[in-house]
Every structure is written in C-alpha cells, then in structure tokens.
Design brief:
Layout: H1 8-20, H2 25-32, H3 36-48, E1 52-54, E2 70-72, E3 78-84, E4 88-95, E5 100-107, H4 112-128, E6 133-140, E7 143-145, E8 150-154, E9 159-162, H5 164-169, E10 176-180, H6 181-192, E11 201-206, E12 210-216, E13 219-220, E14 235-237, E15 243-245, H7 252-261, H8 271-277, H9 283-310, E16 314-318, H10 325-338, E17 346-349, H11 354-371
Parallel strand pairs: 3-6, 6-10, 11-16, 16-17
Antiparallel strand pairs: 1-2, 3-4, 4-5, 7-8, 8-9, 11-12, 12-13, 14-15
Helix pairs in contact: 1-3, 2-3, 6-11, 8-9, 9-10
Length: 385
C-alpha cells in the first residue's frame, strides 16, 4: 500500500516513533497519554496507511505479552534536501527515517551559480529516488523568512530578497519548504530525537555559519520576518584572554586559512579535506588536529556563554566544529570548565557531524507535511483519548 498523510493523533504517534526509535504500543500510549485501545487503533491505521510496521516480537521478562516494536517504514516517503551554504551546495536524498540515501556536494562560486548548481543537484536526486517524493526542503544561510520562503539577506552570496521557494517551485512538482540553516537543524533535533526528548533547548550551529535557534515547548521560535540568530558578532575570549568577534576565530574558512598558512593543507583544499587530514597519523595529521581542537575550545566558550544568556537547560551543537572525536572532547571540556560553579545545561552532540547536515532540511519537510497540526475542521475525524 502506498503511504498516505496521517491526521491529527496519528501524527502524534508517528512523531513519537520517529523521535524515539522502535517503540511498542504500550510505550506510545504512555508517552501520549492515550488508552491502550486508542493507541492500538491509531497504530493499526498507520500500518494500513503504509507508514509504520511491526518488528519481531521481543521476549518480555516475567509474565505478559512479548513487546512488539513499531518501526517507521523508511521508504514510505523520500525527501530531497537542499543546503545552500556560503561556499558549496549540498543536495541529499533522505528517507522518512532520516537516513541519507544519496548525497552530492559542489562548490558553487556564488550568486546565480549557486542556484544553477542547486538545480543540477535536485535533478540528480530526482533521478536517484526510488519512492514517492514527499517534498523538497531547502535551507540557506543568512536571514531567511520561512513564511514566504524568501532569503532576505545572505551576504556571502550577495543575495537580497531572493524568492527561493518560488524559484524552486518552478523546478519541482512537490511541496517546497524553505528556512534558515540553524532553524532547520533545530527542527531536525525534534523530528529525529537529537535533543533526547527535551521540549526546550538551544541549537548552536558552528561551521561556516555561526547561528543559534531557540526551541520552546517543542516549537522552533521564529523572530520577526525570520530575523535573528546570528552569532557572528558575539565576542569570544581567546585562550590568552584576548576578545575576538566569533566570525574572526570560529568559521570553517578561518580555520582553513590558518591551515594553509601553516602548510598543513594546499590552498585548493576544503574544510572537509582538513578534517580527513586530522585523522591521519604523523606530523601533518597532528598539526591539523591541533587547529581543530583550538577552534573547538573557543567554540565551547561561545556555547557556554550563549547557553547562559538564554538560561538553557539543553543545548545541541552541530556542524564542522564537531568533525572529529578530539574536537568534540575539547568543546565539551571547555564548555564544562566555563560553567564551573554554575548551572550546567545538558549538551547534545551527534557523533557523526554529517548526519544533521544531511537530514535537517528533510526533517523540515517531514514536520510540515506529516507531523504539523491539522486544521480544526479535521478534529471531528480524529480519535479522542
């Protein structure tokens, strides 16, 4: 059976299984405050609609029925994800479970060329798709207005008031959703459970872009016309006590330039290349690793300061700053040191930094097409309690 779009409480059940992984009917009922009968009915409807399936029964200790886990059917839908960054365009084909099936990255050269590369990437993912396409999720740096899909300002590309959603709608015949990089990542945290169930948290993105998004009551907050969240101008204390603007010490391009100056990498090398060099044995690998660790320690200070400013209880950190295990350790250690004697938020970092980059734009489509609340007129169709 081909997958359908769920309604109301079905969406709550689907969201629970997506965020928490394989989940039993009884667990769904507990988490959503439903009766066992109501949960069972909703699960049966989602199975009939081709969105979830039962796994193999798991023996239960003692008496009682064995636990039967419920899984999202990964290829019930596939999603095309587009990320337009300051330097390169990444297009990805993602399934409903958030798994990356195909990915392509290409340096774009800025301006109109960024759109041309994006169109080519979208065509590549359309050709690779093996299931129905739920939609296209596009994320861009700078100031993005999600309600209109307009990129209001993206200085790195000299973009002003670019109607990205309308432009993309002319290229595809599926729903198109557009937002900023960091808000899409925060939404991905909700959909795929990276915030570990926390309803209120911050997402701090430290890569070529430096941004923060705030989530309250499981909703990503959006400023007026989508404005806000830029951390480029925040001051970061260097290891010798000197204060720097964050953009001057934390961007991928800054670390890459230092690597070129020190002879660690060729001028034509990319940040991805640098992260791979850091994993190599020998002097060059050690030098690359030191650069990434220095940057991660500064990032830990920034994250601690931002968390304190927002009084956050949970913080998710993503992108290039978490590219190696040593970088993650350095960031966490500096974060904890910065907050000694103070309330310390829980810190969440995906061990594979490419996962959030790959599926965050797709999560935006899943959220808005499958999980978003339905209009009031559909309430009567839903199962109460």
């Amino acid at each position: 059976m081909s997958a359908e779009r769920p309604v109301r409480r079905q969406r709550d059940v689907l969201a629970t299984i997506l965020a928490h992984g394989p989940t039993s009917r009884s667990d769904v009922a507990k988490m959503l405050g439903l009766t066992q009968a109501s949960a069972a009915k909703l699960v049966s409807e989602l199975i009939e609609e081709g969105l979830i399936r039962e796994g193999a029964a798991e023996p239960k200790g003692g008496r009682g029925r064995p636990r039967i886990p419920l899984h999202v059917i990964p290829d019930a839908w596939q999603i095309i994800a587009l990320r337009i960054g300051p330097i390169q365009v990444t297009t990805t084909l993602v399934n409903l479970a958030g798994e990356v099936l195909e990915s392509h990255r290409e340096v774009h050269g800025g301006g109109q060329r960024a759109l041309d590369v994006a169109f080519q990437g979208i065509e590549r993912m359309q050709a690779a798709a093996t299931a129905r396409i739920l939609g296209l999720g596009a994320i861009a740096g700078g100031w993005v207005e999600p309600a209109t899909g307009v990129v209001r300002r993206f200085n790195d590309l000299s973009w002003w008031d670019v109607p990205l959603r309308d432009i993309l709608r002319e290229k595809v015949d599926v729903p198109v959703h557009v937002d900023s990089v960091v808000r899409a990542h925060a939404n991905g945290d909700l959909v795929y459970g990276r915030a570990k169930g926390a309803p209120d948290f911050l997402h701090v993105f430290i890569g070529q872009l430096l941004q923060v998004a705030q989530v309250a009551e499981s909703r990503v907050l959006v400023g007026p016309s989508g404005y806000g969240g830029d951390l480029s101008g925040w001051l970061v204390g260097d290891l010798d006590g000197t204060a720097h603007r964050a953009e001057g010490v934390l961007k991928d391009s800054v670390v890459l330039a230092r690597a070129v100056q020190r002879g660690v990498i060729d001028p034509s090398g990319t940040y991805d290349d640098l992260t791979q060099i850091a994993l190599e044995p020998g002097a060059r690998g050690h030098a690359a690793n030191r650069l990434l660790i220095e940057r991660a320690r500064l990032a830990g200070r920034l994250v601690a300061d931002v968390a304190g400013f927002f009084s956050a209880q949970d913080v998710v950190v993503s992108s290039g700053v978490t590219a190696t295990p040593q970088s993650i350790d350095a960031l966490v250690n500096e974060f904890e040191t910065r907050l000694v004697g103070l309330p310390r938020p829980r810190l969440h970092i995906d061990p594979d930094w490419r996962v959030p980059i790959g599926n965050s734009a797709a999560a935006m489509v899943v959220q808005r097409e499958l999980l978003a609340p339905v209009p009031d007129e559909e309430t009567s169709k839903d199962l109460e309690s």
